[in-house]
Structures are given as structure tokens and as C-alpha cells.
Write a structure and sequence with these properties.
Strand content: 15-25%
CATH class of the largest domain: Alpha Beta
Distance between the termini: 39 Å
Region (Phosphopantothenoylcysteine decarboxylase): 1-227
CATH architecture of the largest domain: 3-Layer(aba) Sandwich
Binding site for CTP: 316, 326, 344-347, 364, 378, 382
Helix content: 25-40%
Largest sheet: 8 strands, mixed
Biased composition (Low complexity): 13-27
Radius of gyration: 24 Å
Cofactor: Mg(2+); FMN
Region (Phosphopantothenate--cysteine ligase): 228-449
Number of domains: 2
CATH topology of the largest domain: Rossmann fold
Strand order of the largest sheet: 14-13-10-15-18-19-20-21
């Protein structure tokens, strides 16, 4: 895909971008050239759902991380949260009307000057209006004039989300380049439970941050229409009801891969091992415990996946026998040796027998010595397309928010990734995956009788 045009502000100045845009800590004091940098401008649209109160938390995270936020609520949303609350929390006026401050032409200027528009929560009604280009209030006018990345975070009852009309509207918006985050599964209004729950505001913020951090590339949904499967976290192999063999993986790298894939438009399935991290917004998460469970979940999810990224720290061995009762310490006696058996080699298996033609497989190699030599050997043995090789140890990789690596390719290419946030490494992985994906084939619907 070609490089998207840099968004323009209403006064003709290019919108802020680059790797630092939208990152936590980019406050008004940040310098650009000889003067202070303009804070990234975010429009927070709020439509009329009960989840409107949760948008206050999203607003707080955006403002506290240095963004200039303008809240544009719909009239219906004011039944839940009033204009005064939005104005006080954002430090900017909040209005639903195109007829207020008309000399500033707000229905045009707000969208033109934005670096990001996020509608959270987004109702089925708002999805329909956005998809069909209706403009009957300030928010819908803003959506029509915005030339920056646009994110929708739907929240509604399951039946409304699954209705064919809503799904067609979502498909239309995604085809135009908007990012529509999949809603979460959980408790809805009243006693209902299902898909349609507003995602965690902290995770929506992370998605916004990643889109802004990509600068002009935030407009590029280069994984739109793709399904990617990611494994993350560590497996635990039980020895008895209270003990297990495990590892130090936090899951942060796999979760970063999931967040960045969502920000680039992918449908993401995350097979998550043992991790204390919250589920990323817009991701279908399958929680597992052991290596055998991880294998089953990955093979099932990979059946229709375009790419599989095995970032989980999978135990190579498991106890040969499981003690149904706690193994007791006996005075004066040494413990019995623990016999181990091999776990399945999931990366080698899925690389050798790919569930889908053209599927791109990415592995990870955590090494402590002879890092590149061991990585090249592993790449050959496993048969994957890309292998992310990183050195691990005390304060390296495991549990850290940063990472550095060399990405080895089956064709001999090597891509070093310098020390930095795990999201940066994740984006580099996707940068290497996308050109290796086969051209998507148009779906054919069999004729009906």
C-alpha cells in the first residue's frame, strides 16, 4: 500500500506525527525545533449508551498523557453524562450543536484539526450514521470532515451487535479505513451477558496511543481483513495440586503484538498463557494453562488465520506423572526425582503442516548465549518464515516493558530492532509479515436457488 497523505490542519500546518506523537509523557513542555510542540489533538465522541460513564476514564488517560482533547457528545449521551462534566475533565468546551460558536465553523474545524477521532462508546445508531454519511449533529459532521485516523469502540447488546445491518455497517467503515474495535464479552445492561460490552478504557487508550504513535501511518490499516493468531505468556505444567514447572514470561511482548495488530486493522485471536495482564481491547482472548492446551487452541484458531505469531514461552517438558495429592517433604529423605517428558513442538508442527496456504509463521527464540548462532539453527529446525531472536536473563526481555532483538528471515535477511518499547518491536514484526502475506482473494458466494 502507498504511504498515506499526511493529515492537514485547518490552518494548513501538517498534523503532528512521528514515533513520539501520542505517547505517554508528551506534554505541552515537549520541544519541537525551537519551540514547544503542539499537543496531539484528539476528538472524543460520546454516543448515547450506558457505557458513556466509562468514557470519563478514557478522557482522563488521554488528558493526563498530554493530549489536547475535545469532547463531542451526542444529545442522547447527555442523559448519562452532562456537558459540564466533559468540559471540566477536558478543559475544553463540549457541545452537541453545530449552531454554537458558528463563527468558528465547528462542524468543519473540529474534524479538520484533529490528529485522532475516537467514538467511545459507539452505539448501533452511531455506526449506522457514520457508515451512511449522515450528519445531523456536531459529532456526525466531525466524522465527515476528519482526515485523520478514526476509531470506533462499540458498546451495545449482543443482538444489536450481531444484527446483519450492524455487521454490514461495521464492514463498510472498516473497508473505508476506520478502526472498529471488537466489543468485549461480559456483563451487559441488566442481567444480560454476551458480546457487546464496552472494552476496558485503559485498553482503548492503548489502542489510541498506538495509532497516534504511528503518525501518518496510523491511517494505514495494512492488516484490515486479515486474521492473525498470537500466543503469549508462559505455560505451566502441573506437578501436584500446588506446584508446577513454569517460566518468567509476563506476556507483555505477545500482548503488544495483539494491540499493534488491532491498531493496524486485524482481527486478532490471542491465545494467552499465564499472565496478569488485562485482555487487550478488540481481541478475542483464549486463556490456557499448559503447553498441550496451547497447542489445541492455536491449531483451532489457525485454521483460517493469515499469520500465526508464536510469542508464548512454551515449556519444553512436563512432568511424566501428576500427583493427585500434594507431594510431602519427608524428614531424612531426599525427594524422588521428577521424570519429565517432551511437550509438543507447536512451532515446528504448524510450520510443517500449515492449516492455510500462504500462511506466515513467526517464532520467537529466547537465548542466553551464542544468540544469533542458536537463532539461525532454530530457524532452520523449526521451518518458520521469521524468527525473533532476543537475549534473555536478569532484567532482559522477561517482565520488562522494553526489548531488543534481531528478526531472522528464512530467505537470509536480518532485521535488527534496537532497544525500545515492546510495541516498537511488535510493529517491526508486522512490517515484515505484511509483505509476505498472499494477496487476499475476493470471497465468492454460491448462487442461491
Amino acid at each position: 500500500m502507498g504511504k498515506p497523505t499526511q493529515p492537514q490542519r485547518a490552518d494548513g500546518v501538517e498534523a503532528a506525527g512521528g514515533a513520539s506523537a501520542g505517547m505517554a509523557g508528551d506534554g505541552p513542555e515537549a520541544m519541537e525545533g525551537n519551540g514547544p510542540a503542539r499537543r496531539p489533538r484528539v476528538v472524543l465522541g460520546v454516543s448515547g449508551g450506558i457505557a458513556a460513564y466509562k468514557a470519563c476514564e478514557l478522557l482522563r488517560r488521554l488528558t493526563e498523557s498530554g493530549h489536547d482533547v475535545r469532547v463531542v457528545p451526542t444529545a442522547a449521551s447527555l442523559h448519562f453524562i452532562g456537558e459540564a462534566t466533559w468540559a471540566a475533565l477536558s478543559g475544553n468546551p463540549a457541545s452537541t450543536e453545530v449552531w454554537e460558536s458558528v463563527h468558528e465553523v465547528p462542524h468543519v474545524r473540529i474534524g479538520q484539526s484533529a490528529d485522532l477521532v475516537v467514538v467511545a462508546p459507539c452505539t448501533a445508531d452511531m455506526l449506522a450514521k457514520a457508515a451512511h454519511g449522515l450528519a445531523d449533529d456536531l459529532l456526525t459532521n466531525t466524522l465527515l470532515t476528519a482526515r485523520c485516523p478514526v476509531i470506533f469502540a462499540p458498546a451495545m447488546h449482543t443482538e444489536m451487535w450481531e444484527h446483519p445491518a450492524t455487521q454490514e455497517n461495521v464492514a463498510t467503515l472498516r473497508r473505508r479505513g476506520a478502526l472498529v474495535i471488537e466489543p468485549a464479552v461480559g456483563r451487559l445492561t441488566g442481567v444480560d451477558t454476551g458480546k457487546g460490552r464496552f472494552p476496558d478504557p485503559a485498553e482503548i487508550f492503548e489502542t489510541c496511543r498506538r495509532v497516534l504513535a504511528r503518525g501518518p501511518l496510523g491511517l494505514t490499516q495494512d492488516l484490515a481483513g486479515r486474521h492473525v493468531v498470537i500466543s503469549a505468556g508462559g505455560t505451566r505444567e502441573p506437578l501436584d495440586p500446588v506446584r508446577f514447572l513454569g517460566n518468567r514470561s509476563s506476556g507483555k511482548q505477545g500482548y503488544a503484538l495483539a494491540r499493534t495488530a488491532v491498531a493496524r486493522g486485524a482481527r486478532v485471536t490471542l491465545v494467552a498463557g499465564n499472565s496478569e495482564l488485562p485482555d487487550p481491547a478488540g481481541v478475542d482472548v483464549v486463556h490456557i494453562g499448559t503447553a498441550v492446551q496451547l497447542r489445541e487452541a492455536v491449531l483451532k484458531a489457525a485454521a483460517d488465520a493469515d499469520a500465526v505469531v508464536m510469542a508464548a514461552a512454551v515449556a519444553d517438558f512436563r512432568p511424566a506423572a501428576y500427583a493427585t495429592g500434594k507431594i510431602k517433604k519427608k524428614d531424612g529423605q531426599e525427594p524422588e526425582p521428577v521424570a519429565l517428558v517432551r511437550n509438543p513442538d507447536i512451532l515446528a508442527e504448524i510450520s510443517a503442516d500449515r492449516p492455510r496456504p500462504g500462511q506466515v509463521i513467526v517464532g520467537f527464540a529466547a537465548e542466553t548465549d551464542d544468540v544469533l548462532a542458536n537463532g539461525r539453527s532454530k530457524l532452520t529446525r523449526k521451518g518458520c518464515d521469521l524468527l525473533v531472536v532476543n537475549e534473555v536473563g536478569d532484567h532482559k526481555a522477561f517482565g520488562s516493558a522494553e526489548n531488543e532483538a534481531v528478526i531472522l528471515a528464512a530467505d537470509g535477511a536480518e532485521t535488527p530492532v534496537p532497544y525500545g518499547p515492546k510495541e516498537a518491536l511488535a510493529d517491526t514484526v508486522w512490517d515484515l509479515v505484511t509483505p509476505r502475506l498472499p494477496t487476499p482473494q475476493p470471497s465468492s458466494t454460491p448462487p442461491t436457488s
